[in-house]
């Protein structure tokens, strides 16, 4: 069996070498010529996969080690009889920690307590649902918006315009869709961006075109009260440097780029490929995951609970570091292509583990233990 795979998939050899020969390539460079003798294609979010890419190749399985599938032509692949698998929920924990870090940073910069801000979550699937659960456990009030689920008769959801009117923070977690009654392309257009509450915080870690970036740049030129954190960009890997300068935080599509999230994606696609082949899947992430980055944090007994929580979250992931690296790489390229620098930041991304891989030792009261558990730290 010949497997062509994005070179950035972690534990590629460990999981897939027992199944056959592997060819590693940069995701954006995978072409039809590379697939002429391939049986399976494994990708991440940067490879566009459609019937044209696979035309007259023996590929019969496509696996994306990501939660999103907007880079796959799902109807076209289904019509061509090609099995497709994705990794739903694999990076949900990492994205939640990204959003928490954004909240901490914007709180620090504005002087407003993130715990008292009402958060609107747009898209309540694997990621948005996990974020809602975490924030609720931390005592943060949330409003939820998910039109497809509301249309199926599920309760607990509010219209997007209500979130715009009533929420201090808006966090986007929708898939990118271009058609249908609930299409998300430019979901936040000029009209809705203008409708954001005074002093609102806007966080997008879903897909760039969910927000009209041209309109956002114009709105930010007029409204200094808004605080915007973008992890995704409408034309990525091309980044609008002027928009970046107007954002409070900017990062190169790495919200869910924790090692643990990527490893879960690899394992899910390994299991899907084995199922497609009708062979056992004896390998497990538990047996293959590295120890690198796992840590213990120690705090004094009299450490205030909220300070301890926020310090621990910063130790696990601090968005300020990614923002600084991103600006240093992007801003000198004004008027030039940012694609190579954007991809280099992703390929060379530092090791990042998640809260469940970090043990926080303390002698605090029940309040401290409850906060740490709510945030997902190892018990």
Structure overview:
It is built from 16 helices and 13 strands. The strands form 3 sheets. It has a 6-stranded parallel β-sheet, with helices on both faces. Strands 2-1-3-4-5 form a 5-stranded parallel β-sheet. It has a two-stranded parallel sheet with strand order 12-13. α4 packs across α5, α4 crosses α13 and α13 packs parallel to α16. It is 38% helix and 13% strand. α1 links the parallel β1 and β2. The chain folds into 3 domains: 116 residues, Rossmann fold (3-Layer(aba) Sandwich), CATH 3.40.50; 159 residues, NAD(P)-binding Rossmann-like Domain (Rossmann fold), CATH 3.40.50.720; 81 residues, Erythronate-4-phosphate dehydrogenase, dimerisation domain (Ribosomal Protein S8, Chain: A, domain 1), CATH 3.30.1370. The protein is of the alpha/beta class and 379 residues long.
In the CATH hierarchy, the third-tier topology of the largest domain is known as: Rossmann fold
- Count of discrete structural domains: 3
Number of helices: 16
Measured between the Cα atoms of the first and last residue, the distance is 42 Å
Give a short overview:
The protein has 379 residues and is an alpha/beta fold.
Please outline the helices and strands:
Layout: E1 2-6, H1 12-16, E2 21-25, E3 40-43, H2 51-54, E4 61-64, H3 74-79, E5 83-85, H4 92-110, E6 119-122, H5 126-137, E7 142-145, H6 147-151, H7 160-166, E8 169-172, H8 190-194, E9 201-204, H9 213-222, E10 227-230, H10 241-246, E11 249-250, H11 259-277, H12 285-288, E12 295-298, H13 305-316, H14 319-330, H15 339-347, E13 358-361, H16 366-375
Parallel strand pairs: 1-2, 1-3, 3-4, 4-5, 6-7, 6-8, 8-9, 9-10, 10-11, 12-13
Helix pairs in contact: 4-5, 4-13, 13-16
